[in-house]
Protein backbone atom coordinates (compact mmCIF):
# COMPACT_ATOMS: atom_id res chain seq x y z
CA UNK A 1 0.00 0.00 0.00
CA UNK A 2 2.84 2.36 0.84
CA UNK A 3 4.26 1.51 -2.60
CA UNK A 4 1.17 2.53 -4.53
CA UNK A 5 0.78 5.73 -2.51
CA UNK A 6 4.40 6.54 -3.26
CA UNK A 7 3.83 5.79 -6.94
CA UNK A 8 0.79 8.09 -7.04
CA UNK A 9 2.59 10.90 -5.23
CA UNK A 10 5.63 10.54 -7.51
CA UNK A 11 3.36 10.76 -10.56
CA UNK A 12 1.68 13.84 -9.14
CA UNK A 13 5.01 15.46 -8.37
CA UNK A 14 6.50 14.67 -11.79
CA UNK A 15 3.47 16.11 -13.52
CA UNK A 16 3.45 19.13 -11.26
CA UNK A 17 7.09 19.94 -11.93
CA UNK A 18 6.32 21.01 -15.47
CA UNK A 19 3.67 23.50 -14.39
CA UNK A 20 4.39 27.15 -13.90
CA UNK A 21 2.45 28.12 -10.80
CA UNK A 22 1.67 26.70 -7.38
CA UNK A 23 -2.08 26.94 -8.08
CA UNK A 24 -1.71 24.95 -11.28
CA UNK A 25 0.38 22.34 -9.46
CA UNK A 26 -2.30 22.07 -6.76
CA UNK A 27 -5.07 21.68 -9.36
CA UNK A 28 -3.11 18.92 -11.10
CA UNK A 29 -2.45 17.11 -7.81
CA UNK A 30 -6.08 17.35 -6.67
CA UNK A 31 -7.37 15.90 -9.95
CA UNK A 32 -5.15 12.82 -9.56
CA UNK A 33 -5.94 11.86 -5.97
CA UNK A 34 -7.34 8.37 -5.33
CA UNK A 35 -10.06 9.66 -3.03
CA UNK A 36 -13.81 10.37 -3.23
CA UNK A 37 -15.00 13.48 -5.06
CA UNK A 38 -14.64 16.40 -2.68
CA UNK A 39 -15.71 20.00 -2.21
CA UNK A 40 -12.58 22.09 -1.75
CA UNK A 41 -14.65 25.14 -0.81
CA UNK A 42 -16.60 23.46 2.01
CA UNK A 43 -16.42 25.30 5.33
CA UNK A 44 -17.68 22.36 7.41
CA UNK A 45 -15.97 18.93 7.57
CA UNK A 46 -19.30 17.19 6.93
CA UNK A 47 -19.50 18.88 3.52
CA UNK A 48 -15.98 18.01 2.33
CA UNK A 49 -16.96 14.48 1.30
CA UNK A 50 -20.75 14.43 0.75
CA UNK A 51 -22.27 11.06 1.63
CA UNK A 52 -23.46 10.32 -1.90
CA UNK A 53 -20.01 11.06 -3.31
CA UNK A 54 -18.90 8.08 -1.24
CA UNK A 55 -21.92 5.82 -1.72
CA UNK A 56 -24.16 6.59 -4.73
CA UNK A 57 -27.67 7.53 -3.65
CA UNK A 58 -29.27 4.57 -5.46
CA UNK A 59 -27.00 2.12 -3.62
CA UNK A 60 -27.59 3.91 -0.33
CA UNK A 61 -31.36 3.58 -0.73
CA UNK A 62 -30.96 -0.11 -1.59
CA UNK A 63 -29.27 -0.88 1.73
CA UNK A 64 -31.55 -2.79 4.08
CA UNK A 65 -31.26 -2.52 7.86
CA UNK A 66 -34.50 -4.33 8.69
CA UNK A 67 -32.60 -7.28 10.20
CA UNK A 68 -30.88 -4.93 12.62
CA UNK A 69 -34.12 -3.16 13.46
CA UNK A 70 -35.64 -6.46 14.58
CA UNK A 71 -32.85 -7.18 17.09
CA UNK A 72 -33.20 -6.41 20.78
CA UNK A 73 -29.60 -6.35 22.06
CA UNK A 74 -25.96 -5.88 21.06
CA UNK A 75 -25.28 -9.63 20.94
CA UNK A 76 -27.98 -10.19 18.32
CA UNK A 77 -26.79 -7.22 16.27
CA UNK A 78 -23.17 -8.36 16.46
CA UNK A 79 -24.16 -11.82 15.19
CA UNK A 80 -25.43 -10.21 11.96
CA UNK A 81 -22.06 -8.68 11.09
CA UNK A 82 -20.09 -10.32 8.25
CA UNK A 83 -16.80 -9.48 10.01
CA UNK A 84 -17.35 -10.03 13.71
CA UNK A 85 -13.70 -9.60 14.70
CA UNK A 86 -13.62 -5.89 13.84
CA UNK A 87 -13.39 -3.86 17.03
CA UNK A 88 -14.00 -0.63 15.10
CA UNK A 89 -17.23 -1.91 13.51
CA UNK A 90 -18.44 -3.35 16.82
CA UNK A 91 -17.84 -0.04 18.56
CA UNK A 92 -19.55 2.02 15.85
CA UNK A 93 -22.54 -0.31 15.76
CA UNK A 94 -22.94 0.06 19.51
CA UNK A 95 -22.67 3.86 19.25
CA UNK A 96 -25.25 4.01 16.46
CA UNK A 97 -27.77 1.78 18.22
CA UNK A 98 -27.26 3.62 21.50
CA UNK A 99 -27.88 6.92 19.75
CA UNK A 100 -30.93 5.48 18.01
CA UNK A 101 -32.37 4.16 21.27
CA UNK A 102 -31.67 7.51 22.91
CA UNK A 103 -33.49 9.40 20.17
CA UNK A 104 -36.51 7.16 20.59
CA UNK A 105 -36.69 8.04 24.15
CA UNK A 106 -35.34 11.34 23.30
CA UNK A 107 1.48 -8.00 -13.02
CA UNK A 108 3.19 -4.53 -12.91
CA UNK A 109 0.41 -2.70 -14.69
CA UNK A 110 -2.09 -5.17 -13.31
CA UNK A 111 -0.54 -4.85 -9.86
CA UNK A 112 -0.64 -1.07 -10.02
CA UNK A 113 -4.25 -1.13 -11.15
CA UNK A 114 -5.24 -3.50 -8.35
CA UNK A 115 -3.34 -1.44 -5.78
CA UNK A 116 -4.92 1.77 -7.03
CA UNK A 117 -8.36 0.17 -6.76
CA UNK A 118 -7.60 -0.94 -3.21
CA UNK A 119 -6.39 2.54 -2.30
CA UNK A 120 -9.52 4.08 -3.77
CA UNK A 121 -11.71 1.62 -1.86
CA UNK A 122 -9.92 2.32 1.41
CA UNK A 123 -10.14 6.10 1.06
CA UNK A 124 -13.87 5.84 0.35
CA UNK A 125 -14.24 3.62 3.41
CA UNK A 126 -12.21 6.01 5.56
CA UNK A 127 -14.30 8.95 4.38
CA UNK A 128 -17.29 7.08 5.81
CA UNK A 129 -15.34 6.39 9.00
CA UNK A 130 -14.73 10.11 9.38
CA UNK A 131 -18.45 10.82 9.15
CA UNK A 132 -19.21 8.17 11.79
CA UNK A 133 -16.54 9.45 14.19
CA UNK A 134 -17.33 13.15 13.92
CA UNK A 135 -14.32 13.72 11.65
CA UNK A 136 -11.75 12.49 14.19
CA UNK A 137 -11.11 8.87 13.19
CA UNK A 138 -9.38 6.25 15.32
CA UNK A 139 -6.71 5.15 12.85
CA UNK A 140 -4.97 2.82 15.32
CA UNK A 141 -8.03 0.62 15.77
CA UNK A 142 -8.64 0.59 12.02
CA UNK A 143 -5.03 -0.47 11.46
CA UNK A 144 -5.46 -3.43 13.81
CA UNK A 145 -8.75 -4.45 12.19
CA UNK A 146 -7.26 -4.29 8.68
CA UNK A 147 -3.91 -5.87 9.64
CA UNK A 148 -2.08 -2.82 8.31
CA UNK A 149 0.40 -0.51 9.97
CA UNK A 150 -0.85 2.68 11.58
CA UNK A 151 1.59 4.57 9.36
CA UNK A 152 -0.09 3.18 6.22
CA UNK A 153 -3.55 4.02 7.53
CA UNK A 154 -2.48 7.53 8.52
CA UNK A 155 -0.97 8.08 5.08
CA UNK A 156 -4.34 7.31 3.52
CA UNK A 157 -6.12 9.65 5.91
CA UNK A 158 -3.58 12.35 5.04
CA UNK A 159 -4.45 11.85 1.37
CA UNK A 160 -8.03 12.74 2.36
CA UNK A 161 -6.77 16.01 3.83
CA UNK A 162 -6.64 14.87 7.46
CA UNK A 163 -4.06 15.91 10.02
CA UNK A 164 -2.80 13.29 12.47
CA UNK A 165 -2.81 14.82 15.92
CA UNK A 166 -3.80 14.43 19.56
CA UNK A 167 -7.16 15.82 20.54
CA UNK A 168 -7.48 18.64 23.04
CA UNK A 169 -9.40 18.11 26.28
CA UNK A 170 -12.28 20.10 24.81
CA UNK A 171 -12.36 17.98 21.65
CA UNK A 172 -12.30 14.73 23.62
CA UNK A 173 -15.16 15.95 25.79
CA UNK A 174 -17.18 16.91 22.72
CA UNK A 175 -16.61 13.49 21.17
CA UNK A 176 -17.17 11.57 24.40
CA UNK A 177 -13.67 10.06 24.36
CA UNK A 178 -12.21 8.84 27.65
CA UNK A 179 -9.36 10.78 29.22
CA UNK A 180 -7.08 7.73 29.12
CA UNK A 181 -6.99 8.15 25.33
CA UNK A 182 -5.36 11.57 25.62
CA UNK A 183 -2.08 10.36 24.12
CA UNK A 184 -3.72 8.63 21.17
CA UNK A 185 -3.50 10.48 17.89
CA UNK A 186 -6.49 10.66 15.57
CA UNK A 187 -7.04 11.49 11.91
CA UNK A 188 -8.80 14.86 12.07
CA UNK A 189 -10.55 16.46 9.10
CA UNK A 190 -11.13 20.21 9.11
CA UNK A 191 -12.54 22.56 6.50
CA UNK A 192 -11.68 24.02 4.10
CA UNK A 193 -9.84 20.80 3.30
CA UNK A 194 -6.08 21.07 2.72
CA UNK A 195 -4.20 18.30 0.95
CA UNK A 196 -0.48 17.51 1.19
CA UNK A 197 1.31 19.87 -1.16
CA UNK A 198 3.33 18.34 -4.00
CA UNK A 199 7.05 18.87 -3.66
CA UNK A 200 8.20 20.93 -6.61
CA UNK A 201 11.79 20.80 -7.74
CA UNK A 202 13.42 23.99 -8.84
CA UNK A 203 14.27 24.19 -12.49
CA UNK A 204 17.97 24.25 -13.22
From TrEMBL:
InterPro entries: RNA_pol-assoc_fac_A49-like. It is found in: Nucleus, Nucleolus. This is Uncharacterized protein. GO terms for molecular function: DNA binding. Keywords: DNA-directed RNA polymerase, Nucleus, Transcription. GO terms for cellular component: DNA-directed RNA polymerase complex; nucleolus. Belongs to the eukaryotic RPA49/POLR1E RNA polymerase subunit family. It comes from Candolleomyces aberdarensis. GO terms for biological process: DNA-templated transcription.
Amino acid sequence: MAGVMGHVMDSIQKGAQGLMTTDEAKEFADSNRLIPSFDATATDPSDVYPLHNIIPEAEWKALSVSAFDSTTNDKERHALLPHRSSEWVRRQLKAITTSKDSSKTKKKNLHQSTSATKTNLLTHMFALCLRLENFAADSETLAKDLSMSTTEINQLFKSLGCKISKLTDRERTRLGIAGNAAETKRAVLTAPVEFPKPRLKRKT
